[in-house]
């Protein structure tokens, strides 16, 4: 089973995470940021991955360090769980409608981290989650997982719907990209490696 555990402790956050790419049976998330928990739950369930996450962060300041550091730790865990990447499909993309909103994510598990992000959010915060942190999470995840990631809100009015569409699209795209195809011999690259 492809899985990884990762911990991170700084003066700002303490994080314990386990990611299971082939066992979606358990999703347990506690970050102290309710909306972020909801988004990570949507990501894991639509990504068909198991995710156990416990965070103690400096929420008395704001949610920035918690959200960014979770992106770092989750990205590293996904990268570790993928190992040598032999047989993975590598690419994934998904459009996800959430009522009036439509989100899109395309990604490449290339080993070359990159983020292109397009999304405008009319509300500054949802609970104790600052909406500008959506891009920060996506950036931290992309750069620590070694994934080329394009994310875009095509349209929508409700900020909750727009952000949820992106997190679900990220999960669905990742599920597609990490799938092992028995017809792929070695790694899915003309170079012969993904790094």
Automatic annotation (TrEMBL):
- Name its pathway: Amino-acid biosynthesis; L-histidine biosynthesis; L-histidine from 5-phospho-alpha-D-ribose 1-diphosphate: step 6/9
UniProt xrefs under InterPro entries: IGPD_sf, ImidazoleglycerolP_deHydtase, ImidazoleglycerP_deHydtase_CS, Ribosomal_Su5_D2-typ_SF
Instruction: Look up the EC number in the record and give it.
Output: 4.2.1.19
* Organism of provenance: Lederbergia lenta (Bacillus lentus)
One GO term of the cellular component aspect? Answer: cytoplasm
Q: What is its main location?
A: cytoplasm
One GO biological-process annotation of the entry reads: L-histidine biosynthetic process
Q: Which family does it belong to?
A: Belongs to the imidazoleglycerol-phosphate dehydratase family.
Key word Amino-acid biosynthesis present: yes
Q: Which residues cross the membrane?
A: none
What is the protein's name according to its record?
A: Imidazoleglycerol-phosphate dehydratase
The GO terms describing molecular function are:
imidazoleglycerol-phosphate dehydratase activity
Catalytic activity as recorded in UniProt: D-erythro-1-(imidazol-4-yl)glycerol 3-phosphate = 3-(imidazol-4-yl)-2-oxopropyl phosphate + H2O
Q: Which Pfam families match?
A: IGPD (PF00475)
UniProt keywords, alphabetically:
Amino-acid biosynthesis, Cytoplasm, Histidine biosynthesis, Lyase
Question: Where found?
Answer: Cytoplasm
**Entries under PROSITE patterns matching the protein:** IGP_DEHYDRATASE_1 (PS00954), IGP_DEHYDRATASE_2 (PS00955)
Keyword Transport among record annotations: no
């Amino acid at each position: 089973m492809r899985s990884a555990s990762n911990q991170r402790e700084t003066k700002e956050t303490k994080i314990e995470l386990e990611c299971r790419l082939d066992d979606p049976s358990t999703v347990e998330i506690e970050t102290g940021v309710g909306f972020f928990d909801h988004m990570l739950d949507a990501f894991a369930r639509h990504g068909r991955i198991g995710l156990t996450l416990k965070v103690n962060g400096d929420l008395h300041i704001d949610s920035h360090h918690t959200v960014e550091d979770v992106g770092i730790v989750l990205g590293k865990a996904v990268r570790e769980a993928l190992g040598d990447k032999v047989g993975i499909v590598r690419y994934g993309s998904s459009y996800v409608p959430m009522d009036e909103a439509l989100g899109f994510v395309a990604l490449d598990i290339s080993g070359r981290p990159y983020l292109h992000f397009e999304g405008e959010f009319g509300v500054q915060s949802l609970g104790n989650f600052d909406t500008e942190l959506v891009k920060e999470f996506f950036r931290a995840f992309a750069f620590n997982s070694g994934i080329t990631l394009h994310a875009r809100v095509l349209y929508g009015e409700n900020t909750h719907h727009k952000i949820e569409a992106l997190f679900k699209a990220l999960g669905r795209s990742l599920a597609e990209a990490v799938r092992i195809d028995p017809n792929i011999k070695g790694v899915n690259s003309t170079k012969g490696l993904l790094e």
